[in-house]
Amino acid sequence: MKNKKIFYLIFVVAVLTLAVGILRNVTEKKLRSDIGQMLIIGFRGTEVSEGSFIVKAIRELNIGGVILFDIDGPTKSFPRNIVNAQQVSALIAGLKKNAKTPLIVAVDAEGGGVNRLKPDYGFIAMPGAQELGGRDDLALTRRISGELASQLSQLGFNVNFAPCVDLGVNLDNPVIARMGRSFSADAETVVRHAAAFIKGQKDHGILTAIKHFPGHGSSQQDSHKGLTDVTATYKANELIPYQELIKDGIVDMVMTAHIINKNIDDRYPATLSGRYIQEILRERLGFQGVVVSDDLQMGAITEHYGFQEAVIRAVLAGCDLLVISNNGKVYDETAARQARDIIYQAVKDGVIPPCRIKESLRRLYNMKARLHSGFSK
């Protein structure tokens, strides 16, 4: 009898140990999968196949989205992902087919100088923000934005990383004013035209991201190339477009800028700073939607912060989506997995609280539900 009891206890302990192990494996697998949803990845290729890097990333990492480009940055060559309408439609359909969770398919289509879908490839011509703001015809801005959004929707895109709501206050700004990306130097004009642009996109089911929070218009440097310090140039009215558009309830996403203002945070740029994202954007302005980082492989980040620190700081600061374009100085197909593993280990080590992942997932699923009818968690 005694031996039977001992055997029974051993059996129960073994079963419980096995159950705990299985539960732990399931929990850890789910955490990795959840973290994958927080990544938007760039890739090379105009079509997909079973062996494509991006197909493997979608299937194995459960990445939240992809971003398409026409020009490959590291080699300065064409094409990268975009050739013509028929090819882009087939590419996007192939990408979505491999996703078990509805996939964000994003593009930078501001118009003017920042438009991956150029007329040279057979797409519609789209004037830039500076031209639209100069005409100051809100009906025209909405109509043109709607025409662009209709094209995006037909191709299969569902997110446009636009409009740019930076104030064109520095005419020598190499990445905003000189490229015609600002509607105006006047905050109210920017608000009116950005709202018209957003509504034109929404008319055709395209979600948008206003950028570059908290405002890149007064900068004297290009954050693609290095850290951009706006301490001496930033003006309070650069925050007005975010404040007013958020108040109007039409903002889907806010994209952060890699700018540093030492009067707010003397160590980290906005993308990596809780003072910007949590205190200003979330608490003061009341934005509860998705915060997406600008590309974490831009010079402002890579030259001053290691990849691991940048990824962890971005999540801790409050970014819900991390953009890894693979389209800066280098192309690194390991970056997506690295980012997933960095965040996973940081959660396991207690550096990133699990609630941060849950918060981001909630916001992302709520946003994706507006893109895909019938989508559920």
Counted up, domains total: 2
CATH superfamily of the largest domain: Glycoside hydrolase, family 3, N-terminal domain
Shape: globular
User: What amount of the residues lies in strands?
Assistant: 5-15%
Number of strands: 12
The biggest sheet amounts to: 8 strands, parallel
The strand line-up of the biggest sheet is 11-9-7-6-3-2-1-12
Secondary-structure blueprint:
Blueprint: H1 2-36, E1 39-42, H2 53-61, E2 65-67, H3 85-97, E3 104-107, E4 109-111, E5 114-115, H4 129-135, H5 138-155, E6 159-160, H6 187-202, E7 207-213, E8 228-229, H7 240-248, E9 253-256, E10 259-260, H8 274-284, E11 290-292, H9 299-302, H10 307-317, E12 322-324, H11 335-348, H12 354-371
Parallel strand pairs: 1-2, 1-12, 2-3, 3-6, 6-7, 7-9, 8-10, 9-11
Antiparallel strand pairs: 4-5
